[in-house]
Each structure stands twice: as C-alpha cells, then as structure tokens.
Here is the input.
Amino acid sequence: EQRVQVHSQIHNEMVDLALACNQMADQLEKVESTRQQFVSNVSHELKTPLSSIKVLSESILLQEDVPKEMYVEFLHDINSEVDRMAAIINDLLTLVKLDQKEVPLNFKELDLNEMLEGIIKRLLPLAKEKNIHIRYEKVKDITATVDEMKLTLAVANLVDNAIKYTPEGGEVEMKLDADHQNVFISVADTGIGIPDDEVARVFERFYRVDKTRDRETGGTGLGLSITHSTIMMHNGSIKVYSKEDEGTTILVRIPIRQNVS
Ligand code: ADP
Here is the structure.
C-alpha cells in the first residue's frame, strides 16, 4: 500500500517536472524567435536606405557629364537616407541602453509642467508647419521623482507622433494631472487613429501600422518601444485609446515618488 503511494507521488512529481521543463523550453523558444525577428528587422530597416544610397550614387557614377542640378538633387536624397540610417541607429542605441537594466535611472525631483512646456516649445515649429494647434493648460504645480532626460524623450515621442499622424489643421491636446500617488500625462490628437486590431502591437519594436503610409513620415518604428520601456522603468503604465479617422489618446501613469535607495 505504502509503496504504491510513494510510487504515485514520485510519478506526480515527474509529471510536474516534465511540464515545467516544457514550459521553460517554450519560453526560451519564444525569446529566441523574438531575438531573431529583431535582428532580421534591424537588418531590413538598415538595408532599405542603404540600397537607395547605392542606386543613387551608382546612377551618378555611371553617367557622363552629369548636370549640376542632378548632382545636387541626388546628393540631397543620399543625405536624407543617411539621416534616416542615423535616426534608426540612434533609436537602437537608446533601446539597448534602456534594456541594460543594471544602468540605474537618474531620478530627481522635476517640475512636470516645465517639462511639458519644454517639449511643446521644441515641437512647436513642427506643429506650425502642419497648422496643428497644440493645447496645453497648466492646472496645478506637479513635481515628481523622474529621470528627466529619459522621461522627456518618452513624452516627446508621444507628442511627435501626435503631430506626425494628424493631418493639417488638426489638434493635439496635452493634459497633466495627479492624485495622491500617481501623475497622469495624456496626449490626444485628432489624427488618423490606429485600427482596433493593431493597437496592441504599436509598442513592438519596428512595428508600424501601415508601412507605406509611415515611410513618408520618416518614423523608425522604435519611438513607442522607447517610450514604453522608459515608463516601465518608472514603474508606471501606458495605455492607448484610438479610433480610426478620429484620433488617438495615449495615457501615461507614473508614481509620484520612486523608491530611490
Ligand atoms: P514611428 O517611428 O513609425 O512613429 P512609433 O514606435 O513611434 O514608430 O509608433 C509605431 C506606430 O504606431 C507608428 O508607425 C504609427 O503607425 C502608430 N502610431 C503611433 N502613434 C500614433 C498616433 N498618435 N496616431 C496614429 N498612429 C500612431
């Protein structure tokens, strides 16, 4: 009797162990496939501008007596492609740094109104070009413990997107609020919106809703990944509410105080 019991106990433990092993194998496979996908995306994203540069430079080299205007035009195009590659590499480096969790955030007290006003001031020329009105009203003084550089970049990405994905004459509205524990920053636009079935994917690296549509805006597909990582490192959360052809609202929550040891 007792032997049977011990036997069945061992059997159960083996089954549990086998299940745990299977689960771990699944997880490793997932990590590996995400990594492969990432490397393949990086290569593809860099290859596209590189091919353009190759075609542009070759067509000048192969032609005799190239007119000066053509030189200028092609060099201009090559220059934009180089800028594009630089932007991708820059974003990648930022992401890699964020991934290295051992690098501590540089937390300090920051006036968030000042931060938002700084972001708006910097992006205003971009908004003006498209005749987009940015609305922001300071409600109350809010300070929080944040990494100034990282959070500024994270929120600036949201405002930059709001301007990029909103047609001429639209509006971007920013709000800052707080309760006893959290601050809330929202960025809402009257832009093109994101289809329901794609909303969940916008934080993925290199994910773009419509590849051709976005190529024109010069995005790298990495901005929201950077924002997401930064908000997570502040122990916060980020949510997207969007309706196609109506607009998008992104809501960020971060704790007012961080446990800085
Ligand atoms: P990108 O550099 O292409 O803007 P992001 O990571 O910042 O990359 O955003 C990912 C994708 O999410 C964008 O390519 C775009 O399709 C979509 N997106 C982000 N913000 C908005 C927005 N405010 N309105 C509509 N679509 C958006």
Remarks:
- The pocket of adenosine-5'-diphosphate is lined by residues 157, 161-162, 165, 189, 191-194, 202, 207-209, 214, 219-225, 248 (CB under 6 Å).
- The first strand starts at residue 107 and ends at 111.
- Residues 2-62 form the longest helix (61 residues).
- Strands lie at 107-111, 133-136, 143-147, 171-178, 182-189, 237-243, 247-255.
